[in-house]
Structures are given as structure tokens and as C-alpha cells.
Write a structure and sequence with these properties.
Layout lengths: L7 E2 L3 E6 L2 E6 L2 E4 L2 E6 L3 H16 L7 E3 L18 E5 L2 E2 L2 E8 L2 H10 L1 E2 L2 E2 L9 E7 L2 E2 L12 H11 L4 H25 L2 E12 L5 E4 L8 E5 L15 H9 L8 H19 L5
Antiparallel strand pairs: 1-2, 2-3, 3-7, 4-5, 6-7, 8-14, 9-12, 9-13, 9-14, 10-11, 14-15, 14-16
Helix pairs in contact: 1-6, 3-4, 5-6
Length: 289
């Protein structure tokens, strides 16, 4: 069996070249505040991959996506090892657009901190009198630049996203920026409406897009996972304070409250994976095999 090495390693994922496709493996690593922690969170990679598959299948009527298969039998022999089963996705190759497409339906996190300071989120003026975790009148699109590992992403305005894309794709900045915004909002609305029927609020999320060989915009990366989104239980939702969540907020909160060397205690790791699994089962209606 030929041993394969990833061509790119992100904070959580590894990407392998498979000729005319890529294979993306979601590892059980966990990152918080742009730092990779020392712990592994068992099954986390499988949750991320299977959840992305669920949403990709649901939204292909809005925009095509890069997923080809999550069945390792469709992949080279190297991936038919237990450690790749369930957490690997074969994808189309795309030229990724260098913008993280963030959409916020509720005010929380860094958005709330910014609103408290000056009534805006990423330069967008919001109504007065909002409370923490309030639902926004309409979802807002707040793009950011895509940072290399070790750097922080930088929030930019929609107008700056036009300029940013124009520099890299002359003559296409306005077209790409407006399509990214419109796709992001459309995807969020469809999925957030569905999630509510399953008892989950999607407070915010981010998408990434790329161009296929014909220059069409295609949804790439991961989609609506606990790593790229804030999921809250709808039951007990109450604006005015932070909400409990189905993601790594547990880990983030512990890291903020304690001195540490980027290692979580075992019980926080267990709580984190329990939350990931609970979110997956609620949203999909299926237990993770």
C-alpha cells in the first residue's frame, strides 16, 4: 500500500492530492483562539465530515458543492484504514476564493462586543437596544480575509471584499463579492430555518467558496459544523446573556477562565465531544455510527 502524505495541513484538517480530486480528512484535533490544543477529541472528525455531507446534500439546489464521496471505498487503498473511515471526504479541486464568508443571524461573541462599544458589527449599523444573543432583524454578512496558520483572520466590509477580490481577479471583484454575499445569506436562511424545526438555533456560521475549472462558484471546505458555526439549543433560548451551545464553546470558556498550557482536562474534552454528538443527532435525526 502506498503511504500518502498530506499536501496541506490546517489546524484541524489534512488535505491529500488524489490526482483530479482532493481528499480532506477531518482529524480529531481541536483548535481554540487559532491555537491547536494538545488534546484529541475522539469522533470529532467524523462529526465534522458527516455533518458537512448532510448540509451539502440539503443545499445543492442553491449552489453546487465540492463533495464527491465520503465512502472510503471510492478512495485509494491508503484511505481504507479505520482511522480514515467516516472522517474523509473526496472533493473536487477548486481555486479557493480568499474570503471567509461569515453570516450572523444573532448577536453574540465578537459581534456583541463590537455592538456594545459603538452600535455596529463589522461596520454595519444595527438597531439600538439589542440585548446579547438577540435575533437580528435580518441576517448580516460580515466577510473576513483568510489568514495563514498562526495569523488571525481580519474582518473587512463588503466594499473592501469587492476591492480585495478585484485585486486577485481583475474585472471580477464586484461579481464575485456579490455572489458570495447572496449565496451565504441564502444558504444560512435555508439551513437556519430547517435547524429551528430540529430544536437548534444557528446563531452564526462561515462558508468558503471556490471556482471550478469552468469559473463557476462552488461551495467548498466544511459546512455548518460545530467548528464553523455556533449552534444553540432553541429550548431555553433567552436573550440577555450568552447561550449554552453544541460546539467548542465549552472548551473556549474553560480556556478563558483558567490558567493553562493549551491542554484541556479530560472532563471538558468529554463534554465537548458529547455536545458535538448531541448536535449531530438532533440536526440529522440519526445516531453517528
Amino acid at each position: 500500500m502506498q503511504e500518502l502524505k498530506p499536501i496541506k495541513e490546517g489546524k484541524v484538517r489534512e488535505i491529500y492530492d488524489n490526482g483530479d480530486s482532493l481528499i480532506m480528512v477531518a482529524t480529531d484535533r481541536i483548535s481554540c483562539f487559532d491555537v491547536i490544543l494538545h488534546n484529541v477529541v475522539t469522533k470529532k472528525g467524523t462529526v465534522l465530515t458527516q455533518m458537512s455531507k448532510f448540509w451539502f446534500d440539503m443545499t445543492k439546489d442553491i449552489i453546487p458543492n465540492h463533495m464527491i464521496s465520503v465512502d472510503v471505498k471510492d478512495m485509494p487503498e491508503f484511505f481504507q484504514q479505520p482511522k480514515f473511515d467516516g472522517n474523509s471526504m473526496m472533493c473536487k479541486k477548486l481555486e479557493m476564493l480568499p474570503v471567509e464568508c461569515i453570516v450572523r443571524g444573532y448577536i453574540t461573541g465578537s459581534g456583541w462586543a463590537s455592538y456594545v462599544k459603538n452600535g455596529t458589527v463589522c461596520g454595519i449599523k444595527l438597531p439600538e437596544g439589542l440585548k446579547e444573543s438577540d435575533k437580528l432583524p435580518e441576517p448580516i454578512y460580515t466577510p473576513s480575509t483568510k489568514a495563514e496558520i498562526g495569523d488571525h483572520d481580519e474582518n473587512i466590509s463588503y466594499e473592501q471584499s469587492v476591492e480585495y477580490l478585484e485585486k486577485r481577479f481583475p474585472g471580477k471583484g464586484e461579481e464575485y463579492a456579490s455572489k458570495l454575499r447572496d449565496y451565504t445569506i441564502a444558504l444560512y436562511k435555508k439551513c437556519a430555518d430547517y435547524a429551528l424545526t430540529r430544536g437548534i438555533i444557528i446563531a452564526d456560521t462561515k462558508f468558503e467558496f471556490g471556482l471550478d475549472e469552468n469559473g463557476n462558484i462552488v461551495l467548498g471546505d466544511e459546512m455548518l459544523t460545530p467548528d464553523s458555526s455556533r449552534f444553540w439549543p432553541a429550548e431555553g433560548y433567552e436573550p440577555g446573556h450568552a447561550q449554552p451551545s453544541f460546539d467548542k464553546q465549552f472548551a473556549r470558556d474553560w480556556l478563558k477562565a483558567n490558567e493553562h498550557d493549551w491542554t484541556l482536562p479530560d472532563e471538558i474534552v468529554q463534554k465537548t465531544i458529547d455536545k458535538y454528538l448531541q448536535g449531530y443527532e438532533l440536526l440529522t435525526g440519526k445516531k453517528l455510527v
